[in-house]
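dumping this here before i forget
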Amino acid sequence: MIQFRADVTLDNDLRDKAARLSNTLPFMKAWGKGVEKLAKANAGRHPGKFWKEIADSVHLFAVDEYTQIVETNHVAAAQKQFGGVIETKNKRALTIPVTDEAKGKKVSEFEDSGRHLFVMRSAKVRGADTIGVLGYSAGGEFHPLFVLRTKTKRQAAEPWWPTEPEVIAIANREADYYLAKQLGTV
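structure:
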């Protein structure tokens, strides 16, 4: 599980607003839900099933009078946020799709459909981290599906988690609302 915590520095104005609330729990819950909603929307702006899975995995995990924790348990959420190298852990190789036919699919989907896959090794694809190309034969031709690698090159970050200014803006909006509610002006 990966928790992204909004460890933000509250300015004096926001600290003052929070201190004036007679009950901070509704404010904290609304603030956490606002961060959750924005994180889901940010991930959802990216196309594809993968990003939808990330968006769907975000939720307000815990809230009390002083803290809220918004988290995601998606295995690739931090990888997308911060970037970096992906390495194999429990398998011999990563399968990286190289054709439209393979994008968004797993090797098992091809095998379950009865297609016989095999590894083609070639000097053109050899590298320190490349094992070969996984594909199938049809009509006497090799049809590549996946490059097999032990690790990827460094992937660029694709930040999607709300930034500190966005988190603070949500807090200010919710604090203003709950102060107005407390005063009976909404």
